[in-house]
Amino acid sequence: MQRHDHSPETWLDEADRKRLAAALAGAREARVYRRLEALLLVAEGHSVAEAARRCRVNRSSVHRWLAQYRAEHEATALIDRPRSGRPRRHPRLTPQRLAAALARDPRRCGYQATSWTVPLLAHDLGRLIHGAPSEIGCTSLAGKVDRISGMSSPPPGVLLGG
Description:
Shape: elongated
Oligomer: single chain
Strand content: under 5%
Strand order of the largest sheet: 1-2
Order of helices and strands: HHHHHEHHE
Structural class: mainly alpha
Number of strands: 2
């Protein structure tokens, strides 16, 4: 395929393409997968604009990922770094409260569902803990479900045992 963007910032060689393809095959996080996919498209000769369009991201993001990758020529450069700030916590969301919520039938709580999903459980627990529907982070809730049930939690929207 013809290269559309001839600027040196977008040049990736065959070794880069192979590294990116191998990393893409092993990517487990959606954000990292998207970054690798965009760079692989550029390495295959697509323009930055085309790669951004196909991956549904902004061109400036693809340029930023190219700069990060080119600094080290390692796919690990595209992994999210720890961010500052305190993680979201809900001290009143105890393991006992969560286990009791999972044991309830969602229909008895006024929901038209036969099983709990992570977002539905987050909504219900927010209502119980805060007195009104409030947002409890689905990611932190899924982690708590993991610890209580001893199983790997599903992504948001997937049914939970209950």
